């Protein structure tokens, strides 16, 4: 059934579209009898206001575009919940676009947001994204944009990231304090800035203790972690493990279970959203990267930019 419009109601009641519009808004210039006729007709024929048209006239879509590298069971859902809590309170809607970790898809997603006349964009970059040249159009069009979690070196847009160095240093110290001497550290995609920052801080902290042997591997997925550990755990007696994310942690946990190593005196430390380790093994220690906190903060920063009609301070990188 075709959607009923104000024009349809006007033709049914033999009055002007402006009279219908004002009657629906309870305008004082419209008589009570006309208001009643219009509202009864609107209810009968399921008239729904066209929010897009209304907001277009106000030069605001009340819609935000959220672009993420991929939608996984780790971390992203909590970010979305945080964003949703803020935007719903502000009367905004948002749609989610997954770039499938493809730079070309990311560019298409940005164009989709522009074509949809979004009021602002929240974006986490793909592993293929090396710079922000493709985002300059957003700056030129004065579309407020916040880059969160996965970013690259840039001075165009405000960003919200975790304090990766601090979390990695704390994780390394936990392994040192436990007395671990042969440590395996599992990192994600080595081409990502987030991986390199965590790697540098973790490695530098471990090196301060001279009698520790550190083995480092890079794995882009939980399955690759398991594949590599099938080989490494055969010939090495590690007494400490570090996983830089929930995804690497679940691959590590699976491998330890397979070889019945989870019950031994081995220390496991991870950087995690905070939910997964509690269900895997209570002995696992972790530094929390709170996705809900990041989503909430990023959304609030975007709202501030939209309300102030400013793009924000591109020099600012907020560390949580």
From TrEMBL:
<dbReference type="GO" id="GO:0000976">
    <property type="term" value="F:transcription cis-regulatory region binding"/>
</dbReference>
<keyword id="KW-0804">Transcription</keyword>
<dbReference type="Pfam" id="PF00356">
    <property type="entry name" value="LacI"/>
</dbReference>
<dbReference type="InterPro" id="IPR000843">
    <property type="entry name" value="HTH_LacI"/>
</dbReference>
<dbReference type="InterPro" id="IPR010982">
    <property type="entry name" value="Lambda_DNA-bd_dom_sf"/>
</dbReference>
<dbReference type="InterPro" id="IPR028082">
    <property type="entry name" value="Peripla_BP_I"/>
</dbReference>
<protein>
    <recommendedName>
        <fullName>HTH lacI-type domain-containing protein</fullName>
    </recommendedName>
</protein>
<dbReference type="Pfam" id="PF00532">
    <property type="entry name" value="Peripla_BP_1"/>
</dbReference>
<dbReference type="InterPro" id="IPR001761">
    <property type="entry name" value="Peripla_BP/Lac1_sug-bd_dom"/>
</dbReference>
<keyword id="KW-0238">DNA-binding</keyword>
<dbReference type="GO" id="GO:0003700">
    <property type="term" value="F:DNA-binding transcription factor activity"/>
</dbReference>
<keyword id="KW-0805">Transcription regulation</keyword>
<feature type="domain" description="HTH lacI-type">
    <location>
        <begin position="4"/>
        <end position="58"/>
    </location>
</feature>
